[in-house]
Design a protein that fits this description.
Blueprint: E1 12-20, E2 31-45, H1 51-62, H2 74-81, E3 83-87, H3 97-109, H4 117-128, H5 138-145, E4 149-151, E5 158-160, E6 168-172, H6 179-189, H7 193-214, H8 220-233, H9 240-252, E7 256-259, E8 267-271, E9 280-281
Antiparallel strand pairs: 1-2, 2-3, 2-4, 4-5, 6-8, 6-9, 7-8
């Protein structure tokens, strides 16, 4: 539950990393999402702002039954003053650039916020539908709460945990990706019964890993298996240069890679119990 202190306005909103649960969360599976404070977004005012785009966003929010009586007039005032966003979150990398915008808008301009995590997640998802047709609300919720969150089975609850990230790294594929293209391709694959059967096995393994991460237990064996299964199931979502790194990690048994969001570009996650200079540590 959000306390009164949680609902005070923030100046800056971090990017996010979906540590576990990519695609599985779309099927009401478990996920862990963490704030990644290397990148962030804050409100600013400029002479030449994207006023027309923000006015469309305001109209979109105002037309939603949930928000039409809860949106502050200060939003319009600030748009007229040159509201803009100062951000170093890379767009098209799966790090939640739109989620950070939504978190800021919700924090600064939506009145009478909800108190329960699931209700806040739903409202944030409704706002992020402006950018994505079917937002789960996980990205903006992570930016809004600015703490790791665990989406429990069947999204029955959302819990906040301290997560050890010492063995996790990021690999920058150097390729922008379109999340919609990736998600549409996943939807196409999901029509296959064999794919769904393998996805269920992956989901069970994903849930085991998440529980071990929360319990701060070792996950090396599970990550080896998970990396191999994702390479088999999601080969279409891995650019060729990244796939070579992925395969090398498996054969050399030095690190293991997985998707970090939709795939097809952007960031990929790396797990290793030994230091990896070629990848960017999540903490450090």
């Amino acid at each position: 539950m959000l306390s009164e202190m949680d609902q005070k306005k923030s100046d800056s909103f971090p990017s996010k990393i979906l540590l576990f649960g990519e695609y599985l969360v779309l099927q009401r599976g478990q996920a862990i999402s963490i704030p990644y404070k290397k990148f962030s977004l804050q409100k600013t005012f400029v002479e030449k702002s994207n006023k027309a785009y923000l006015l469309k966003f305001f109209e979109f929010i105002s037309s939603n039954e949930i928000f039409k009586n809860k949106i502050s007039e200060q939003f319009i005032i600030d748009i007229e003053r040159g509201l803009s966003f100062e951000s170093n979150i890379p767009v098209g990398y799966g790090l939640g650039s739109s989620g950070a915008i939504v978190a800021l808008i919700y924090d600064h301009y939506i009145l009478e916020k909800k108190n329960e995590f699931l209700e806040v997640k739903y409202e944030l998802g409704q706002l992020e539908n402006f950018f994505h047709n079917n937002s789960s609300g996980v990205d903006p919720l992570t930016s809004f709460l600015q703490m790791p969150i665990h989406i429990a089975p069947d999204e029955s609850s959302i819990l906040c945990h301290e997560i050890s990230l010492a063995s996790f790294y990021l690999h920058d594929s150097g390729i922008k990706r379109n999340a919609k293209v990736a998600i549409d391709h996943f939807a196409k694959l999901s029509k296959s019964e064999p794919f769904q059967n393998e996805l269920m096995k992956l989901s069970n393994l994903n849930n085991n890993i998440i529980q071990n991460v929360i319990d701060q237990k070792r996950i090396l064996n599970e990550m080896q298996q998970f990396s191999e299964m994702q390479l088999e199931l999601f080969g279409d979502f891995i650019p060729e240069p990244t796939k070579k790194l992925w395969e090398y990690g498996i054969t050399s048994k030095t690190y293991w890679m997985k998707l970090c969001g939709a795939g097809m570009g952007g960031m990929f996650l790396v797990y290793s119990e030994t230091p990896q200079d070629q990848f960017e540590p999540i903490v450090g």
